[in-house]
Design brief:
By secondary structure, this protein is mostly helical. It has three domains: about 140 residues; about 110 residues; about 110 residues, Cytochrome Bc1 Complex, Chain D, domain 2. Helices cover about 40% and strands about 5% of the residues. The chain contains 16 helices and nine strands. The strands form four sheets. A three-stranded antiparallel sheet has the order 1-2-3, with no helix packed on it. Helix 1 packs across helix 5. The protein starts with a helix and ends with a helix. About 40% of the residues are buried. One of its GO terms (cellular component) is plasma membrane. It comes from Caballeronia zhejiangensis. One of its GO terms (molecular function) is oxidoreductase activity, acting on CH-OH group of donors.
């Protein structure tokens, strides 16, 4: 009888342990999505395997290739210990003691808790192994010298854990943890100085990343999100589309598709609460887009011809749009010139539970001069005529991240 009871206790303990392990893996999957790991560690090709790395991360100093983080023991992180994983995430030090470049956001992940890091590690251990060696970085000298990162860290990196602010609400603190740590929003939405460090005085005020203009997330009413309603922000983070405000494009479309759309409404609301409370940062000459200002009398015949040939069938002759194609007044015409050009060059392929936003790429159909003319026509007609661009700038954008 005692032996049977002992066996039953062991079986129950094993079942409980297995349930706890499964729960931790599920929690880790959620955290990995919130951390945006898939969008950087998955190459762009249709045959690419999730988390197998190989994607170039453009920087002003050259390209850094995201590594393989599948469970493969030779080319991935399958042979890493938990301690090595935590050190890489928090300190930017790889398995063999090599310094990691801050294209990997350890400068934000340093805030993460032990429990969350171990849960992320547990989930990544379940990702099927893919044998795929990481390409060599293409950084120019002296930025290819990893030992210099020790000096960079002394100047630009402050290792620390997240400490809740007792004077703030639980919702604010959760939002701070997600925005500043796990979601590392500031890594793209904060300008960087000459050596690649984040500029604290312009935190979350918008920045240029691989040619894309990441928006101002501060509550400034003109340059930032101050005029957005909470439901508009929630919809944008959940679906990538806030009609009349903006549509997620480029890297942000990937963030939505692989990350924020999977977060709980409570976590998304906490991020909004936190962003509402950060100091507003105004932008010089920023102004609200007004579709009533659209110039419908333009005599730019070449721009009008290109628009009629490539855009009007979906977006309407006057940019009014029709479902599922968004209007260009405000949503498209007010986009930064570089964003508009990159959309024309690369198209849109944003998949969410809400919809599949799809637009073909025109990089092969149009020359740099034609894309500049078309982009300037769209901004002149439907947005801010100051947001002009020339063929040389288009040529530079064409090769970024390729």
């Amino acid at each position: 009888m005692k032996a049977r009871l002992a066996c039953l206790i062991v079986l129950l303990a094993c079942a409980s342990g297995a349930a706890q392990a499964q729960t931790r893996v599920q929690q880790g999957e959620y955290l990995v999505r919130a951390g945006g790991c898939m969008s950087c560690h998955t190459a762009r090709s249709e045959s690419a395997r999730p988390f197998a790395g190989g994607r170039p991360i453009p920087t002003p100093f050259g390209d850094v290739f995201a590594p393989n983080i599948t469970s493969d023991r030779e080319t991935g992180i399958g042979a890493w210990t938990d301690a090595q994983f935590i050190r890489a995430m928090r300190e930017g030090i790889g398995r063999n003691g090599e310094r990691l470049y801050p294209a990997f956001p350890y400068t934000s992940y340093t805030l993460l808790s032990d429990a969350d890091l171990l849960a992320m590690r547990a989930y990544l251990a379940t990702v099927p192994p893919v044998r795929s060696a990481t390409p060599r970085n293409t950084l120019a000298f002296p930025f290819d010298q990893r030992w210099l990162m020790a000096l960079w860290n002394l100047l630009e990196f402050s290792p620390r854990r997240f400490v809740p602010d007792p004077s703030k609400s639980a919702e604010w603190n959760r939002g701070a943890y997600l925005v500043e740590g796990l979601g590392h929003c500031g890594e793209c939405h904060t300008p960087r100085n000459g050596i690649g460090g984040l500029m604290g005085s312009k935190r979350l005020a918008g920045a240029t990343v691989a040619g894309w203009q990441a928006g101002n997330l501060t509550p400034d009413r003109v340059a930032g999100i101050g005029a957005w309603r909470d439901d508009e922000l929630l919809r944008f983070l959940s679906t990538g589309a806030a009609p009349g405000r903006a549509h997620a494009l480029g890297p942000m479309a990937e963030v939505v598709a692989t990350g924020t759309q999977h977060l709980t409404p409570a976590d998304l609301r906490s991020m909004i609460v936190y962003l509402r409370a950060v100091p507003p940062v105004a932008a010089k000459d920023a102004r609200v887009s007004d579709p009533a200002r659209a110039d419908t009398t333009s005599i730019d015949s070449e721009g009008a011809r290109l628009y009629a040939a490539a855009c009007a069938s979906c977006h309407g002759a006057t940019g009014e749009g029709s479902k599922p194609f968004p209007p260009l007044a405000r949503d498209g015409g007010a986009a930064a010139a570089s964003n508009l050009v990159l959309v024309i060059l690369r198209g849109v392929n944003r998949k969410t539970r809400d919809a599949h936003a799809l637009m073909p790429a025109f990089d092969a159909q149009f020359t740099d001069e034609q894309i500049a003319v078309l982009s300037n026509f769209v901004t002149r007609q439907f947005g801010d005529p100051r947001a002009s661009i020339d063929a040389k700038a288009v040529a530079r954008l064409r090769v970024i991240g390729q």
